Amino acid sequence: MEIERKFLIKEVPAEAQAAEKLVIEQAYLCRKPVVRVRRANDDYYLTYKGGGMMAREEYNLPLTAEAYKTLRAKADGTIIRKTRHLIPYCSAGEEYLIELDLFENPNPGLWMAEVEFESIEKAEGFEPPAWFGTEVTYDKKYHNSNM
């Protein structure tokens, strides 16, 4: 189960410069249900995501680089490219990992943050940092599969 909230951001925090980074490329094979392939640095995955906005089923299976390239060629639409900055964050005594994405394609310059949670209760109680802007968890146009 994936439970996550998504936010646009007001300003890029200083922590982003020193954060661990992943260069991500992902392609969608199907949008209902969501089936995608992803390269994150030198790791490759096939992901299935069920319906839902904040909480939904998610399954990841490892792929080889060759399998990824074969499946990417079958993509249904735009291939997303982004750099993900992994920023640790503490809120109300809880430790979180903010995944701050800078999109190259299809929305060059778009910064969006995602935070994953262990439960819906923790997601609903999350206090975002001041540099977060508008929440877009329930706005379908900000789900990567719709970009």
For this entry, give a set of tags.
147 residues; mainly beta; Hypothetical Protein Pfu-838710-001; 10-stranded antiparallel beta sheet; 10 strands
Oligomer: single chain
How large is the radius of gyration? Answer: 15 Å
What portion of residues belong to β-strands? over 45%
The CATH superfamily title: Hypothetical Protein Pfu-838710-001
Write down the secondary-structure element order: EHEEEEEHEEEHE
Indicate how many domains the architecture comprises: 1
Average the pLDDT over all residues and give the rounded result: 96
Uncertain residue ranges: none
The helicity comes to 10-25%
CA distance, first residue to last residue: 22 Å
Text of the CATH class: Mainly Beta
Task: Tell me the structural class.
Answer: mainly beta
- CATH topology name: Hypothetical Protein Pfu-838710-001
| Approximate shape | globular
Number of helices: 3
Q: Which architecture does the CATH hierarchy give at level 2?
A: Beta Barrel
- State the total count of DSSP E strands: 10
Report the sheet with the most strands, covering strand number, pairing sense and barrel closure. 10 strands, antiparallel
